[in-house]
Amino acid sequence: MKFNAKSFIEYVKQRNNNESEFIQAVEEVAVSLEDFLNANQIYLENRILERLVEPERTIIFRVPWVDDNGEIKVNRGYRIQFNSAIGPYKGGLRFHPTVNLSVLKFLGFEQVFKNSLTGLPLGGGKGGSDFDPHSKSDSEVMRFSQSFMSELYRYIGPNIDVPAGDIGVGAREIGYLFGQYKKLTKDFSGVLTGKGLPWGGSNIRTEATGYGLVYFVEEMLRAKNDSINGKKVIISGSGNVAQYAAEKVIQLGAKVLTMSDSAGTIYDKDGITQEKLEHLKQIKNVKRGRIKDYANKYNVEYLDSENPWSIKADIALPCATQNEINKEDAMALVKNEIVLVGEGANMPSTSEAIDIFKENKILFSPGKASNAGGVAVSGLEMSQNSARVQWSREEVDQNLKKIMIEIHGKILEYGNRGESIDYVAGANIAGFKRVADSMIAQGLV
Ligand code: NDP
Ligand code: 2IT
């Protein structure tokens, strides 16, 4: 049998019309796997890739709720249970107006490979809603979250499917979702991760994605006999991932020049200090305001409606959303002699941008590798819940670091090209192999 990535993508396009983000994610994987599949016929004979691009189950449901004015609102809820070959479905929930089937399918598909790379027993899933938590009151968010869970609870469970946070879903939302699940099922269990520390959460889960990203970047630099110390770093986003990526960068002696939100970018030439970062956390997490307030308070440059990619630096860490680095942005980064691009968000670089990084020999790591620290600590939260224990910050942090270093090692197995490392191919092949072997072992289900 012969696998041809191009014709496979045509087949996926035909079956998933108009799902551009999903097709983009599949295309990247199919291209990476071409040689590997042709050299390992067993995966072709078992039609593993055809099976992998078909979610095991897709649940779509109505989410009605009442706003503070007593008006009825209706949103759409989703949970995509993508693949359970190596563990219960696991992955975040996203609440954002841009959420649709294509976005959640790309996220669920990537999650399967990411979770496999962690080495933990985690299948892949993703869900969410087109609900926009911006400018909603706490009680509106609570009523929406309760309505969402009133349907979702039927399909999840600590050994079935364990959702967590993603864009628009943080500690507040996880709390309301957990409360409603418990009320409906009478069951206090580890059905969600990202829980509060007093009620079953794990130390370091809040920090895990951002810290893990920087641990991974350190490994990439170490492989080049370099280090992060003294580097200039541009970060996009100012949510969970961006905040803790910035924190770890600062701790390791590098300078964070930018952060952003959906309205614009702040450019702090002196570098964001831990103290200023604490203020930014207040703006974004407590006041739920705009990053522009940071520029006003510290009198730094504010780039209205712009992203950070035009600012000169050594390292770029996109930590906001998908396709936030396009071809022009990638060219600007290359022109400014960027050394490394480490994805904290899921699929923040378009495929044209990735091609430009490759052509210019930029060290580039895909989100499914470098942002795996979040779901990895979610996996550790599940273990702690099962054992009814809570590990210390130090213990979880050490575990996280170890997992990120191991992911780097697994990628080297398949992505080492002598003088360079193909992190995209390495992550896709290593992530695929574990899931594919498990699928074959479990028969045609
Ligand atoms: P948050 O909701 O905490 O923060 C998202 C940030 O990105 C905010 O600053 C937001 O701006 C900005 N943003 C969101 N959508 C857009 C958009 N369309 N255009 C421009 N800016 C945007 O989410 P997280 O930090 O949790 O997630 C960020 C990324 O990291 C996502 O890609 C997510 O899938 C990924 N990720 C998250 C993990 C986690 O554990 N949370 C784990 C692995 C990956 P504003 O404040 O204006 O909305
Ligand atoms: O994209 C991701 O890996 C997440 N949003 C975290 C998933 C999780 O289950 O912790």
UniProtKB/TrEMBL annotation:
Describe, as the record does, how this protein assembles with itself and its partners.
Homohexamer.
Q: Which GO terms describe its biological process?
A: glutamate biosynthetic process
Q: Which GO terms describe its cellular component?
A: cytosol
Q: Does the keyword Nucleotide-binding apply?
A: yes
- Entry annotation: catalytic residues: 126
What NCBIfam families does this protein's entry cite? PRK09414.1
Q: Where does NAD(+) bind?
A: 209, 240
Q: Which residues bind substrate?
A: 90, 111, 114, 165, 378
Q: Which family does it belong to?
A: Belongs to the Glu/Leu/Phe/Val dehydrogenases family.
Write down the Gene3D superfamilies for this protein, in alphabetical order. Glutamate Dehydrogenase, chain A, domain 3 (1.10.285.10), Leucine Dehydrogenase, chain A, domain 1 (3.40.50.10860), NAD(P)-binding Rossmann-like Domain (3.40.50.720)
The cross-references to InterPro entries, in alphabetical order and at most eight, read: Aminoacid_DH-like_N_sf, Glu/Leu/Phe/Val/Trp_DH, Glu/Leu/Phe/Val/Trp_DH_C, Glu/Leu/Phe/Val/Trp_DH_dimer, Glu/Leu/Phe/Val_DH_AS, Glu_DH, Glu_Leu_Phe_Val_DH, NAD(P)-bd_dom_sf
Domain Glutamate/phenylalanine/leucine/valine/L-tryptophan dehydrogenase C-terminal: start-end pairs = 202-443
Mind telling me what this protein is named?
A: Glutamate dehydrogenase
